[in-house]
Specification:
Blueprint (H helix, E strand, L loop, with lengths): L4 E4 L2 H11 L20 E7 L2 E10 L10 E9 L8 H15 L4 E7 L3 H6 L3 E9 L3 E9 H7 L3
Parallel strand pairs: 4-5
Antiparallel strand pairs: 1-2, 2-3, 3-4, 5-7, 6-7
The structure holds coenzyme A.
Coenzyme A binds next to strand 4, helix 2, strand 5 and helix 3.
Length: 156
C-alpha cells in the first residue's frame, strides 16, 4: 500500500509546485495553461501526510500533426525531489490516463523534456519526429501513447 494519496485538485493548487519544479523563471500566474480551465480537464495531486508533493494535469487538445479525435494532452507531471523514485509520478500518470479513458480518450500526448523522456517511455509513450526546440524549456520530444491499452495494463 502506497503512503501517497492521489486526489483531484484545483489548477490554482498546482501553481506553486508547477513553478518551483518546472517553471522557476515564471510568475505564479504565468504557469497557468489555457487548457487548465477546459471543462473536462483533470488536475491531480499527490499528498504525503497532507502535504502536496506531486502534481499532474490532462486536458483535451488535438495532437500536433495528427488528425485523430480523442487526443488528450498531459502537462506538468512533477514530483518534489525528496519523493521521486517511489512510484508517485506513475500513480499521477495512471490517474490522468484513467480520466482520459473514462472520457473516451484515444491518445495521450505530451511535449517531454529530455530528462523525463525515460519516464514516459517506461509507460508506453513513443516519440514522434525530431526534438522541438522550446525557447524557454529547451529541447523537448513530442510523445504519445494509446489511452485504453495503457489503462488496462497498468497495475502498480
Ligand atoms: C519525471 C518525474 C515526474 C518522475 O516522477 P517519479 O515519482 O520519480 O517517478 P516514479 O517513481 O513513479 O517512476 C516510475 C518508473 O519510471 C522510471 N523513471 C522515473 N523517472 C525517470 C526518468 N527521468 N528517466 C527514466 N526513467 C524514469 C522509474 O525508474 C520507475 O521505473 P520502474 O518502475 O521500472 O522502477 C519526476 O522525476 C519529476 O518530477 N521530474 C521533474 C519534472 C519533470 O521534468 N517533469 C516532466 C515534464 S515533461
Amino acid at each position: 500500500m502506497s503512503d501517497y494519496e492521489i486526489e483531484v485538485i484545483e489548477p490554482a493548487e498546482a501553481r506553486p509546485l508547477r513553478r518551483a519544479l518546472l517553471h522557476p523563471e515564471s510568475t505564479l500566474e504565468a504557469v497557468d495553461h489555457p487548457g487548465d480551465t477546459h471543462p473536462a480537464a483533470r488536475h491531480v495531486g499527490a499528498f504525503k501526510d497532507g502535504l502536496l508533493i506531486g502534481i499532474a494535469t490532462i486536458h483535451p487538445q488535438p495532437m500536433p500533426g495528427a488528425t485523430r479525435t480523442g487526443a488528450w494532452r498531459v502537462r506538468d507531471v512533477a514530483v518534489e525531489h525528496g519523493h521521486r523514485g517511489r512510484g508517485v509520478g506513475a500513480l499521477l500518470l495512471e490517474r490522468l490516463l484513467e480520466h482520459a479513458a473514462e472520457h473516451e480518450g484515444v491518445v495521450a500526448w505530451a511535449t517531454v523534456r529530455i530528462a523525463a523522456f525515460g519516464f514516459f517511455e517506461r509507460y508506453g509513450f513513443t516519440r514522434s519526429g525530431a526534438p522541438i526546440d522550446d525557447p524557454h524549456e529547451g529541447p523537448q520530444y513530442l510523445m504519445h501513447a494509446g489511452v485504453r491499452p495503457l489503462h488496462r495494463s497498468w497495475r502498480l
